[in-house]
Amino acid sequence: MFLKGKRLVAFSVFSLLGGFCNLHAESAVSPKAYILFSVGDFPVTNGMLYTWLVSLVIIAVVRCAVGRPQLIPGRGQIIVEGIIDNIYQIIVPIVGRRAAKATFPLLIGFFIYILMHNWSSLLPGVTTIGAYQHNHFLYFFRPSNADLNAPLALAIVSFTVWLYCILRFAGIKGSIVHIFGNKADRNEVSLGIYGFLFFIFLGVGFIECISILFRLISLSFRLYGNVFGGENLINNIMTLSPWTKWIIPIPFYFLEILIGAIQAFVFTLLTAVYIGLMCNHEEEV
Amino acid sequence: MTHFFADLASPAGESSGFMHLMDTFGVRGDLLFAQVVNFCVVTYLLYRFALKPVLKTVEERQRKISEGLQYAEEMKAQLASAEQDRLKVVKQSQEDAQKLLERTKKESEIYLHEQKEATEGKINQMFSQARDSIEMERKQMITEARAEVVDLVIATTERILQSSLTDEVKASLNKQALEALKEEKF
User: Fold this and answer.
1) What is the ipTM of this complex?
2) Does the distance separating the beta carbons of B39 and A106 come in below 8 Å?
3) Is B49 near chain A, with CB under 8 Å?
């Protein structure tokens, strides 16, 4: 392993606390993950490696925080219970009480998984510890959501669960009626207009189908763009000047903490909204 | 970037444009699948070993709180019922005590009256006995006094007359003396 930028060897207290122990800082982060090594035919990228590491940490941290749940909870249990309860209270009115029970494990999983991965991207060493290969710096740890494979995988899971939910709770007929059906009230419009609106809503249904398919793109690229953009922002600020790199990035780290939480929440909420739009008709009445 | 969108838009370059997009962002089928599996495993483990026990505990706590509240409500109702019973018992006791008091008062008055009458009877009897006794003693004393007076009169008369009188004379004199005494209201 080669540490580029020897001037950054001396760590400060700031660097330990704020995550500034960058051993390497380039002006731009690669849009794709690097393949570090292969296990058989399977390529292990820096994004994949860091995903596994953080995933292990997530399981360990949450398990340790919860411990053995008690009726009179400890501090860790209170935090986990607070997150669970708040997410559940937000989700129930959106997806409906019936679908909430089925989708809650996945939605809380989305939130915790994305949040922890986003925040872990701010840890020291991420995108900065690595080695030179053919005069090119290969870092070992890349934020999970800065590798498009991860957000796209989450979007695929989200889409699959959405599909399962609408088939289970709305049914095929209900879903088709919801997407292509004439939303006009027959008693309020004339037959001619009602017939005309039937074709209009049929067309709207096709547009709706395209928008549904594009949710895969919108969900994944929104998350990827925010995390990848954040990484680029911090890396660029690090290279602005050797004298300002210790102080200037601090507000941006707080910004990234905020964005990490917001993006986790947005992804979870949008998945809930997509499910709720199709499955929550009973509650609307 | 313009070339990239042009490639995507053209029918001929559709496949190459999409592949170029995938290649630009490093999207691969195997990595995508690995990420899906990774997320599913993490979510399952989190839910199975962390969230599910917490949810179970929360439900258990809610059940206990609910039971506690229900128990408190029941206890409240029982307390109200017990309070009503207590008031009823106190009221009944007060009534019983009042009745007992009145009965006792009445009985004591009757007893007092009886005792008073008995005592008065005894006192009257004692008075009567005392009066009779006094009367008898007075009569006896009068009789004795009469005898003494007669004897005295006789003695005096004998001395005066210097002679003895016959029994008939003595009797006649006694009779006269008695009459005289009666007249004198001795």
Assistant:
1) 0.82
2) no
3) yes
